[in-house]
Amino acid sequence: MLYSEIKYLVGKEVMLELKQKYVLNGILLYLVSTIFVTYLAFENAITAETWNSLFWIILLFVAVNGISKSFMQENAARHLYYYTIASPQAIVLSKILYNLFLMAILSILAFGFFLLLMGNQVVNIPLFLLTLLLGSFGLSSVLTMVAAIASRASHNFSLMAILSFPIILPLLATLMKVSRAAMSSMDWSGLSGFLIILITINGAVVALAYLLFPYLWRD
């Protein structure tokens, strides 16, 4: 039952995104223009450390802009309708899965544009792509849950930024450490601890969303 609800809700998110193409186009324009301005600012004088830092900063702002609309674009009547046809667990998990799919695409596009304009600073491509996947999962789950909380507070966008910062900061710091290692060597040794931390953070956020969202939903 839960699986079928999630499947249809994810399909609904995709259909809404296709109908509102200006939203996705706006996010893509923001991503490309930000990377291009960064390229103009640094030209060819960019180090691996700067490349890594700029990449994750840009991806963070893209994630905030892209995922903040998860609950904030829905009014009270639509929330009530969803409440009558689906369980709250299915709703929050479908939002996380859809945002994961969206963030994975945006992350790959950002990586591609960085390679095209800023040059390739990554040595261990598989490790960097794994970091992108874990980072997309982490950003989508954290920001989706925080967007749900902010939507219950009169759609306060500043509240979303404040609540997400304490969780995203350790996540982002760990992601930057792993990606920095991917830019220096092909060696995977010594990174298992960081990868476990990323998986643990992602799992904990999804578990909290699954357990706590029903209480938030009833409010």
General description of the model:
This protein has 219 residues and is an all-alpha fold. The chain has one domain (2-218). It contains nine helices and no strands. It has helices at 2-19, 21-42, 48-67, 69-72, 76-85, 88-118, 125-151, 157-182, 192-218. α2 (21-42) runs parallel beside α6, α6 crosses α9 and α7 (125-151) runs antiparallel to α8. The two termini are 24 Å apart. The mean pLDDT is 83.
SSE pattern:
HHHHHHHHH
Instruction: Assign the structural class, choosing from mainly alpha, mainly beta, alpha/beta, alpha+beta, or little secondary structure.
Output: mainly alpha
Distance between the termini: 24 Å
Helix content: over 70%
Major sheet description: none
Work out the number of β strands: 0
Low-confidence stretches: none
Query: How large is the share of residues in beta strands?
Result: under 5%
Radius of gyration: 18 Å
Total discrete domains: 1
Mean pLDDT: 83
Form type = globular
- Annotation field: number of helices: 9
Write a brief caption for the model.
This protein is mainly alpha-helical. It contains nine helices and no strands. The chain has one domain.
Question: Which features characterize this protein?
Answer:
9 helices, 219 residues, mainly alpha
